[in-house]
Amino acid sequence: QNRRKFSSPASLLSPPLPPPAAQAQPRRFSNVGITARKFSQTLGWGGKVGAELTAEIVDQGRALCAQYIRSRLKRTGIFSKKCGLQRLRSAATLPGGFVVRQVLPELISIGAELERLHPKVYTGVGRQISSLPGGAASSEKALASALTCVSKELTRGQVTWARVVSLFAVAGGLAVDCVRSGHPEYIYSIVEAMATSIENDLATWIAENGGWPGLCSYCKPPSTEISLSSFVGFLGALVAAAFLIVLILRWFGRFAI
């Protein structure tokens, strides 16, 4: 079984990769690395991507993030029209609407389970990942920078669907912080920062793992149904056994046609 395992630290899933070459890094908050590893520990469970496919994955990820945030705010009991997400009410009107509708239930289900199992990790996220007085929710720039840094930490090494969902849970937690601090208008900055993180850190991996529908395949339990070929083989074995019994009975004179 390798589905929905959240208890083992994700950092143990693969050996650490060598440090990347020195390059310009976005400004990082002092607590981001520690907190991102906490997000990673709640999980237990090559080739270039064409520009068109990348754009499609990013658009679908943006829509999924907006819908996930709506769900998180509703589960928390603080969603209202003031949150400014009414125009995202229907995923069908967004790019990749069919894929979004297909993947969203699984995404919400796994994200909600992560939040339930680790409420302290996915609550008050803004103050955990930022040392600013008001936490990461103090400004749109702080939110974008914080989410970008968390994305870098979570996707360091081996990327998994569990880590991808964890990033959505972090975005949902930040959205809750924004609403509670009186800045629901910051939510769009979270959605756009998520889209940027998907494009920079996740798009290639997602494309190589079946696109967003790959999340559904990852979560789908093993099928217990008998395939057509297995059924035909089983039926053939029964017929052969019956024919053999008839021959044996005729041989001993106990069966007559």
TrEMBL record:
Keywords: Apoptosis, Membrane, Transmembrane, Transmembrane helix. The chain crosses the membrane at residues 231-252. Residues 1-25 are annotated as: Disordered. One of its GO terms (molecular function) is BH domain binding. It is a single-pass membrane protein. The keyword Signal does not apply. SMART domains: BCL (SM00337). SUPFAM superfamilies: Bcl-2 inhibitors of programmed cell death. Its main location: membrane. It is found in: Membrane. Pfam families: Bcl-2. GO terms for cellular component: mitochondrial outer membrane. One of its GO terms (biological process) is release of cytochrome c from mitochondria. Residues 107-212 form the Bcl-2 Bcl-2 homology region 1-3 domain. Belongs to the Bcl-2 family. This is Putative apoptosis regulator protein of the bcl-2 family.
